[in-house]
Amino acid sequence: METAWQHFGALRTFQLAIQKSIASWLFDFNSLHAVETHYSDWNFIPTPEAWPYRWGTEDDAELLTGGGISLDQVRALFSCGGRPVLLERDGELVTYVWYLPDGVSNSGWIWIAPGPEELVSTGHQVLPKFRGQGIYQRTRNFAGSQLAAEGYRRHISTVEALNRASLRAGEGGRPGTGPRRYVGRITYVRILGLVIFRLSGATGSRKWGAGFWRRKHPYRLSYDFFHEKDGASG
Question: Which domains, and CATH codes, for the chain?
Answer without folding.
Answer: 4-12+19-226 (3.40.630.30)
